[in-house]
């Protein structure tokens, strides 16, 4: 059983992601600096998409975000060159907040009963929803670090 600390860490990471989303212009969010293959926007959206795959899909549940969003930002995808609109930014902001709360609520309700083990590309095997949630925290923190590096080049 996970403690509230695990979800508090997830919430803190999401709040850090929101800071970048809300304090950059749409153009800045879309910049792919030389030497990088993605941008701040993609990294934030990827955190939402990949969390859905790691937790919901691996538990044989329907993700709570649109499938086309997941397809656009899942592992192995890259920015499409589009600059997000203000409506896109607001929608991603809402997804960051809603999916964090829903993951915690769904875990507490016990909906992740049928979790299927999965070996991540990190080389870490997820054997339970608890493993997936803990790994997702590490994954999102890694992308937050990437965003901080990207931020250096888009000031």
From TrEMBL:
Judging by the UniProt lineage, the source's domain of life is Bacteria
In what residue span(s) does the DinB-like domain sit? Answer: 11-147
Q: Which SUPFAM superfamilies match?
A: DinB/YfiT-like putative metalloenzymes (SSF109854)
Which Pfam family, an example, fits this chain?
DinB_2
Q: Which residues belong to the signal peptide in this entry?
A: none
What's the protein here called? Damage-inducible protein DinB
Q: Which organism is it from?
A: Capnocytophaga haemolytica
Q: What is the lineage of its organism?
A: Bacteria, Pseudomonadati, Bacteroidota, Flavobacteriia, Flavobacteriales
